Amino acid sequence: MQRLLIVDDEQSMRELLEHVLAREGYHVETAENGRVALERMKEYAFDLVISDIQMPDMTGIELLEQVRATSPETVVIMITAFATVDTARQAFKLGAEDFIIKDSGFDVDELKVLVRKAIEKTQLRQRVELLQKELTRRSSFDNIIGRSAKMQALFRIIETVAPTHSTVLITGESGTGKELVARALHSHGPRSNLSFVSVNCGAFAETLLESELFGYMKGAFTGAATNKKGLFEAASGGTIFLDEIGEMSPAMQVKLLRVLQERVIRRVGGTEEIPVDVRVIAATNRNLEDEVAKGAFRQDLFYRISVIPVELPPLRERAEDIPDLVDHFLEKLAKASGRPRLTCSPEALRHLESYDWPGNVRELENTIERAHAFESTSMVEPERLPQRILHYSPRDAAAVSIPEGGIDLESFLAELEKSYLREALSRTNFNQTRSAELLRMPVRSFRHLMTKYRLRDR
Ligand SMILES: Nc1ncnc2c1ncn2[C@@H]1O[C@H](COP(=O)(O)OP(=O)(O)OP(=O)(O)O)[C@@H](O)[C@H]1O
Ligand SMILES: [Mg+2]
Q1: What is the CA radius of gyration of the chain?
Q2: The domain spanning residue 90 has which CATH number?
């Protein structure tokens, strides 16, 4: 039921409006001045306020200003006995929805229509807002969640690129959603009714990958008992997703380059050149430019596949997506398990939002799945989260790094200690007592360490 507040210092007017509008089915309250109205609005959310302009204490215009500031969703209609163009203009400027003139010919029917229209208008506005929110949340790409600016920008790219036939290279850390994006590109593209074939190039030994991709002829190698189509042929007309392309051996890179240039394949052990019409989407969690610089990835192939580069941001750079992702996974789990949908406690969410997610969305999904499995109440509480997330402290993680070849912690710490001693000595002009103070240790311990590290005066 819509809630109306009528503000007028004239009792007869309040009663008339209340009577007419309550009969229209609204919940109607009244206030005899602006102050009482504002007091009431602190506790109660009104959809519409009808206020007189001329009132002692606070004028209707002042009230209008306050309402706009504290409750921008509430619609305000002004009533006045003597409408002057100026006050009307001022009221509209301040955001009044409409104007009622209470002269001798005050028309009750006109009032009803005016109120109904104003309310319909707000309802419409609210619906549009909800729909817009829903659109942003759902992001128009079915199951890819992301309200963050980075993800929204990515959706725009997908929308633009999907309808073309161009080759796309998707990069991003492990678990950021590269495969999901590849599928979205396919399903929003011109080949969506044909197959999407996904190959993990890192999962096959070199020769196996070749026969997997291009197929083979009977007798091409031991075990090739029949002729067999490869995945390029299977994907014919559709899309082939070459995942982990950075893992491809140099020899395979040459073969793939040839396929991309000439749009034909040759089966292992075969001589015939078979034309293939396939859209190629590749993905990698390596930095292919670095691999090219190192000589591990062919530059010509890199140029071929990275016609359109799409980069997926790591989850730690879009923490604002975490609540939606958590909801999304809880929803999915509830559907799959047939159990009621859990909610995430604000406390647990806080931990999830401040963690740095090296495994990105996949790690988050696994975390939620685990919590869902072990949670016996209807709320995911922090106790259901792994220790590494509960006790995560960004400072520790930022300061420490272990180099490739490992680290000799003991001598590293000794060096560090020595540097602190030296720094303290030079800061205090070689005063041992003050140096010990700076490092908050007894002078005797300080002297002991000086001997240990053979630090002498100056
Ligand atoms: N934005 C997202 N919205 C919803 N689910 C997501 C999102 N991103 C990733 N996921 C989910 O996270 C999991 C990992 O995603 P995906 O397999 O696409 O990552 P990836 O980048 O290919 O990882 P890897 O490099 O390890 O292969 C999947 O279950 C996927 O559905
Ligand atoms: Mg993947």
Answers
A1: 35
A2: 3.40.50.2300
